[in-house]
């Protein structure tokens, strides 16, 4: 027999461990391999096999996903080493109706999901990443990495982030990467996937909403959309509107720093950030 690759070995072991009968490769991402599997020839489930390079961060997120207990999130049945055995979601993402123009409906759905994710549960996972640590790349970035015309945006957003950290609030487990395309349709309603596993201010979990969904930069940059999203999220979750907008601006700058470090363009974020800062100033 030829030597199996690590992913083939992990898949074989998972099939035996959980008595699975059939596997179909679905996707390979920079972070994992995804398989659709069958149990007893009828029940569909998913196997997510983490790549070693991201096993620590993704493992942290998977344990948080398991901690949610299927409430507002995909259900994790079991985790063994770098393999997650979980609910199969074959519905589309929340990004689809939002890109089709139903943004308020999408924002209401996000608020509903977050209300479930943020419910108190005990005990919280022990290895969550502190939000302040997650933001270190923003503070470590050399402003000269930013386009000359956008350096004032960087300075203002960094200042807002520091002010937010200076006024701490409740510290709760956070999804850490909640956006429209990480929320999938299911027969149980909209469910979140792929958390990062962060500990911090509840309002931060809405920050990513303001620079998403993918392929909808015009919508995210629209001041009316920013205001409407902030209104809906603040009213439905009872989180301070100014704090929501502050985290949105700070996170947009952090995302730009990540993209710059990866050699990616930041034109989409630069279209949104000035309007986020303006909304924050007016809040």
From TrEMBL:
Annotated GO MF terms: phosphotransferase activity, alcohol group as acceptor
Family annotation (InterPro entries): Kinase-like_dom_sf, NH2Glyco/OHUrea_AB-resist_kin
Origin: domain of life: Bacteria
Pfam families (alphabetical): APH_6_hur
Signal peptide start and end residues: none
GO biological process, one term: secondary metabolic process
Protein name as annotated: 3'-kinase
């Amino acid at each position: 027999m030829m030597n199996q690759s690590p992913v083939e070995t992990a898949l074989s072991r998972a099939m035996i461990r959980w008595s699975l009968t059939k596997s179909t490769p679905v996707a390979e991402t920079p972070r994992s391999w995804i398989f659709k599997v069958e149990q007893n020839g009828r029940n569909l489930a998913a196997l997510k096999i983490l790549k070693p390079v991201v096993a620590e961060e993704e493992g942290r997120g998977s344990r948080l996903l398991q901690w949610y207990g299927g409430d507002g999130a995909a259900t994790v049945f079991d985790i063994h080493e770098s393999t997650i055995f979980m609910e199969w979601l074959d519905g589309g993402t929340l990004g689809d109706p939002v890109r089709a123009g139903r943004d308020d409906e999408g924002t209401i759905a996000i608020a509903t999901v977050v209300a479930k994710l943020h419910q108190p549960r005990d005990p919280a996972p022990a290895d969550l990443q502190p939000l302040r640590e997650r933001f270190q790349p923003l503070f470590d970035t050399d402003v000269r990495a930013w386009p000359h015309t956008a350096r004032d945006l960087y300075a203002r957003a960094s200042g807002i982030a520091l002010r937010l950290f200076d006024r701490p609030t409740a510290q709760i487990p956070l999804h850490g990467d909640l956006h429209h395309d990480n929320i999938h349709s299911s027969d149980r309603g909209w469910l979140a996937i792929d958390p990062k596993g962060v500990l911090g201010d509840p309002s931060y979990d809405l920050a990513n909403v303001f620079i998403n969904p993918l392929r909808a930069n015009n919508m995210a940059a629209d001041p009316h959309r920013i205001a409407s999203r902030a209104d809906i999220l603040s009213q439905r979750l009872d989180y301070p509107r100014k704090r929501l907008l502050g985290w949105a601006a700070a996170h947009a700058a952090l995302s730009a720093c990540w993209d710059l470090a990866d050699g990616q363009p930041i034109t989409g974020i630069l279209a949104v950030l000035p309007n986020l800062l303006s909304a924050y100033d007016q809040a």
